[in-house]
Amino acid sequence: MELCRRLTSLPPPHHRHRARCLAGSSSSPPPQHAEDRISALPDDMLLVVLARLGCASAAARTAILSRRWGRLWTRLTKATFRDVQLGALEAALASLGPEARLLDICPAGEDDVASDSVSSVLRAAARLLPVELVFTLPQDIIRALDDGDQEQLQLPHFHRATSMELDTPLYMALPPAGEFPALERLCISRWYGVDFAALILRCPRLRVLRARCFGNVPSIKIHSASLEELVLDKFVVVRRQLDDDGACHIDIVAPGLKQLTVSFTARTLHYSVSISAPMLHNLSWHCWYSPKDFAVGAFWYVMRLWLTTTTKTTETRPPAASLGVLANDNSLSMEIYVHRSPMMDAHGNFAREIEKLPVADFTILVLYLKLMDQTHVFGPMVTHLLATNQIRTSTRKLKVVLDRWSKQVNEACPRDCPCDDEPNKLWRTKTISFPSLEEVEIEGFQGLDDDLDFLKRIFQCAPTLKTMTVKLLDNVTPNDHGRREIDNTFKKYPFVKCYVTSVFG
What is the structure's pLDDT at 343? Predict the structure, then answer.
């Protein structure tokens, strides 16, 4: 009877659940047949879950969850493989279905690998007909292939690919025949020995080509009617041995090209540049030179030169123009070093080298002069640069940065130094005009005789000068002779806005 009273006095079910929670009784065994709500989701939603894993290998391991998950990963539209051995990678690619539109592959590093294994993986990827391909070889595989006597990698056809990114620091051969008919964007890195002329012929719809670190090149030939953006980054120009003239040729013909970026190291000055791109409006050109190759006079040499412009084509162009008429500013910058003694073997020619640049008019000229503790007179050299036809007639703004290695310099150069001999002294008196120069800035000014002579010469030769700014080193005081000479010079040209500041503000 007591038991019956207890049973009849039990609280309702929801109160019993609340009582268990309050009592901390959370260790009740789960139901024997709990519903698998994740597996009950539709396939499309499960594929979204697998895609969020970001790795096809991790997605494949979900096969342990249930039979339904076993082959689901093979239907991914984006398959990313990281650190998978080449053999397993080839098998995994063979398991993927036709839904795979994007393949992103970076195999695991291996010490013992053959080029055939890498080519086989590429062929397995090509059979899937991806729309986008990213293929990267790790350094371990690169070292293994470099150490052995390996054949070239073979790049198969990717008939449906519109975008490809290949980072393969090896020599890779194009297919014997056929095209990449859908390819619009190609990025290649460290593809040594690439034949651009043959590559472009295989890509009739290519709009964007970006190539970087592709080694020494005897010549570059890119003729494309579809190309709109071209990047050639970090390559080395070397002298040809087979041609009669031995010169390296950079030959670009692209009537629809709008953006061009070129960055290279010139191991020789025996090269030519020919660019025909009437629609070009964004240009970046960067060149490094071997020490003392690109000489400017007997004591100065250019180590780095770069040209930038973000210009727009005008509506009217001369019909024979090889480049678009550039409406905005073209900025030419040079990093120039001084040599202590005359460079008898210097064989560079400044005017000839400037003529190779794809732009003829430079509205902004920036010179970074790397001066030593006891340096040579820089006035003759800078005046010579300014007198070059392409610079003299078009430069509106000049900036000269005097980068002195030591602030304790009392003389520009030793007495009787050949850098300021009788022929060079003519720069102070020779009749010359910079008719377009309107703005000048000199940074690192110390008030030495050479500094002051150059300052005065600019005033004398620039009839349209509007603004002069001199930035002094912090060790120059108001009572210094050089500082007083600056003020006296400024007073002679009241129609020019003159400013004196410190380098540090």
Answer: 63
